[in-house]
Amino acid sequence: MAKENTVIKDRLEKLRAAMAKNGIDYYIMPTSDYHNSEYSADFFKVREYFCGFDGSNGTLVVSQNFAGMWTDGRYFIQAENQMKGTGVELFMMLNPGVPTIAEFLFDNMKDGETLGFDGKVISTSVGENYEKKLSGKAVKYKIDKDLAEDVWTDRPALPCHDMYVLSDELCGRSFKEKLANVRSKMREFGATAHLLSKLDDIMWLTNLRGSDVECNPVALAYAYITFDRFVLFVQEKEVTDEVRAYCDKVGIELKDYHEVMNFISEVKLDGNVLCDKRNTNFLTYKTLLDRTKEAGVLLKNEKDPTEIMKAVKNDTELKNIREVYLKDSVVLTKFIYWVKKNVGKIPMTEYTAAEKLDGMRAELPGFIELSFPTISAYKSNAAMAHYEATKDNAAEVKADGMLLVDSGATYMGGTTDVTRTIVVGEISDEIKKHYTATVMGMLNLASSKFMEGCTGRNVDTFARMALWEMGIDYNHGTGHGIGYMLNVHEGPHSIRWRFNEGMHEAVLQPGMIVSDEPGVYIEGSHGIRIENIVEVVERETNEYGRFLGFDHLTYAPIDLEAIDKKYMQPKDIEKLNNYHKMVYEKVSPFIDDEDVKKWLKEATRAI
Amino acid sequence: MAKENTVIKDRLEKLRAAMAKNGIDYYIMPTSDYHNSEYSADFFKVREYFCGFDGSNGTLVVSQNFAGMWTDGRYFIQAENQMKGTGVELFMMLNPGVPTIAEFLFDNMKDGETLGFDGKVISTSVGENYEKKLSGKAVKYKIDKDLAEDVWTDRPALPCHDMYVLSDELCGRSFKEKLANVRSKMREFGATAHLLSKLDDIMWLTNLRGSDVECNPVALAYAYITFDRFVLFVQEKEVTDEVRAYCDKVGIELKDYHEVMNFISEVKLDGNVLCDKRNTNFLTYKTLLDRTKEAGVLLKNEKDPTEIMKAVKNDTELKNIREVYLKDSVVLTKFIYWVKKNVGKIPMTEYTAAEKLDGMRAELPGFIELSFPTISAYKSNAAMAHYEATKDNAAEVKADGMLLVDSGATYMGGTTDVTRTIVVGEISDEIKKHYTATVMGMLNLASSKFMEGCTGRNVDTFARMALWEMGIDYNHGTGHGIGYMLNVHEGPHSIRWRFNEGMHEAVLQPGMIVSDEPGVYIEGSHGIRIENIVEVVERETNEYGRFLGFDHLTYAPIDLEAIDKKYMQPKDIEKLNNYHKMVYEKVSPFIDDEDVKKWLKEATRAI
């Protein structure tokens, strides 16, 4: 039997005492902050605190005589290890016979019992699903209490970092112009007020930035918009003099972040309220729902108008993005050269290679932060979807096989993302076949021409065709939108093929930028991903309508050592040669070292 | 001023008298039978009777001092001509400033007035749309009265033709087996009764056929299904002794077609009722809605379970379909030879060419009827989407340009559909370019390999890629499902690319058959369409999942005189050559005439 984990057991006992005090029979702790951000700060790691499991996905459910943690297949082994001796039961999601949390609660909760959770860290869809699944039971809810407040004594503080202001010149549109567009959409929806909870949307709209979420240049914030007010809720300590002066000037009314719930509980409603359920936490949404009912107005659940405005980049943003991607591409090109030159000659691990690349990026003028933790995966590690090398646990990179590097940064002028799989030694014919098909997929999508009205579902298959012909697929989307000095993953558009009834799809529009990243992952052997970022552009408008296409934003060589022409049609070869010609033309002027330039010439040669 | 059309004016006066008698202020006459069939019989041509316009789409609205007819752009000129002197106003749908019918009624109807129509010829979605758009007005409805009954004295009878029975051997599944599957879906949906209104679904389920709708081998029918009854409503006169004996044997309870409304108004409901809104007329749906409310049960609006069962053909159906398509392909091949040999030498019009082909098909054993009126369009006529040559109005086919022929038939063993565009003389380089891209599109889709889970929206672009690259599109879907000895157009699957929020998509499954018919239409110059029917098949199942593809069902030569290799990649040429090799292998054994065989060899040569 595993040794008892008295630390966790002690914490759980304290939690149970708090539950009893608050009249809560079952308490749920998920993995999210108040805004469903991609990364949660330490303050929000309540689930980890009470069960020991620190993976990126897990939900802990506790009652007086039960504790269970639900996670997905990526984490079964890790969770089992980390929760040893805690008495917390592991529920392996999607395994046969394993109930969902809602099913478990339905089977175990008794009429009259109370389900509790902090409704600020539960998304509205999850909260509504609990309510729906438990609707046959006389269950009560307590959703406004974060029990960790009382129990977790050495809890880290809520992230709180200085905000900063981006100039209108850098943003291409002033806050005032953007706000006018949002208000015009509010009018269209028949709303006189709009609560916006999505952090990157608030940052985009205000031309402000912050640093409260890892790798996302955003501050924790809410915005409440009417036709004569714009109230921004942020932590007072984050508001620098510069930010305050800017807000005064442009008419942003500042209130403390922690006041938002009181505010929406009390503010006078003189018309319908626009609020996007997908982006608003359960407690906030429910509060607004009650308030609007009370006031005899409607809560209009419509897409945040900022979402599409943010996704379609303006001319200034596009100009800056193109420049930033080029300088980022130059760094990556130099890094590829460095890897190829030094592999087998100097000590190199996945971790030190990533450190090298991160350091090169950090030296660029305008560098702010990485846009996500660099993925550096050698050989078969690259086949693991969520592999993460750490300083102490990283494979040595030898002169054999390939190194996959997926990386990016946010600079003044844009956020980047790029993946290259670098040949560092001998590779098999099978790898070359897979590599060639991956490259063909990336270029086939990037060079496609399609009619306006297409969504990512229409064009995804262009990237998969060559792989599907070989009976290979990759188990991830082909592309995601990317923010402007914002989150590296943003919607509403994406490039995915799978159909889900009632799913939302966004039509591709000129000015959107999107990733194009097919891959091949062979467990225990190798992983390949080639990712360029492309910009949607107009190609032609004629009697049939408007034809769109993509322009590359990423210019970095694709490893010709892994290309086998026998799998390519003349047109495929032409696409690769054209791309490499552009890479050399764009990148070489920024390469001073003659050795690197010479190598680049060779690395981008026509085949 | 146009000469008065006293015939129409007189009819309208009689209609207005009937309206007054029935307390109806506005009366709507659309274009549909009781089952929203693709073709309406003469009995249903009420709109034509009261305004003179006989196009395939139009809705007439009449009040005491107004008559207006709404139609789409295909018919503006025709409608104007046919309605001259009738006093009926033409409303050009989708033209700027032209109100929809609902908008017109909203603007013109007064509170307290009554809107009337025969709710049996209005689809539920259209009816609900009227109700929704007029919800701000105190408008009353009278939807159970077909005023033509009183006014149209020489009205043609409701179509009434003998039904017939297909053997279980021919259908692959007995009625009993199919019914068990339907009942099992009813259980899943929690329904104890199911009203089925869709004619081809009823025919498929019962293994019966009829001839009440042009080109569709269906009888006018309803089916009411519970766990212990199967009631089939058909016109008594259609029930032959054979049909009656079969129904007795398999437990089909026969009732007269005209009894259905009484039946559903009176039948005891002891549970929820399953009824697919999309396939049920407004009056029937509303009646059931009232009945279920009254009985305290639910009307479950779910997809008819028969829809997907019918679409996925069973092994027997597939075996027969393959044979029927081959014999149909042989006929088409011989016809192509006949056209090419005789053009410019004997008198030939679009109409006589179609007659020749129809006659050749009619001679085949098992021929039942054409699956749709043959489209035969010469040169620029082929660019018109809805061109129809008639005996008296058909272009002469000369030894110049191309003839497009889209045709098919229902035989014992399957329903076919195929298009070939035949070179009959000189064609331009531009035509060759367009023709080559169309063929590449057809073959590219047909030879694609894709993952299970794809719908038509994922693969449509395979057929368009080559055309889109040239900045050309076709303004129709790429593919539709096809019935088994049933309608030439059937769902739920299709191959289309356009996105509509909330649209229904069906995943492609092995056993489905679907058309693959890209085209190019240049107004005033030429029209090209190449259509093969393909069968969805499994290609491979491995660790990534199940890969599907298509097998050709159609084997007829593609005109090499219009192919220009310079637009093709080696892979495209290989696809064409492989297809032609199969065409020769499959078709030539059925060609006795050595001249034809020799020609076919040449027509299917590798290029």
TrEMBL record, chains A, B:
Record keyword Metal-binding present: yes
GO cellular component: cytoplasm
Ranges where the Peptidase M24 C-terminal domain occurs: 547-607
Matches recorded under Gene3D superfamilies: Creatinase/methionine aminopeptidase superfamily, Creatinase/prolidase N-terminal domain
MF annotations from Gene Ontology: metal ion binding; metalloaminopeptidase activity
Highest taxon listed in the record's lineage: Bacteria
Pfam hit, one: Peptidase_M24
Residue span, Peptidase M24 domain: 320-537
Domain Creatinase N-terminal: 11-138
Alphabetic keyword roster: Aminopeptidase, Hydrolase, Metal-binding, Protease
Keyword Electron transport included in the entry's annotation: no
TM regions (residue ranges): none
Signal peptide positions (record): none
Family: Belongs to the peptidase M24B family.
Record-given protein name: Xaa-Pro aminopeptidase
Organism: Butyrivibrio proteoclasticus
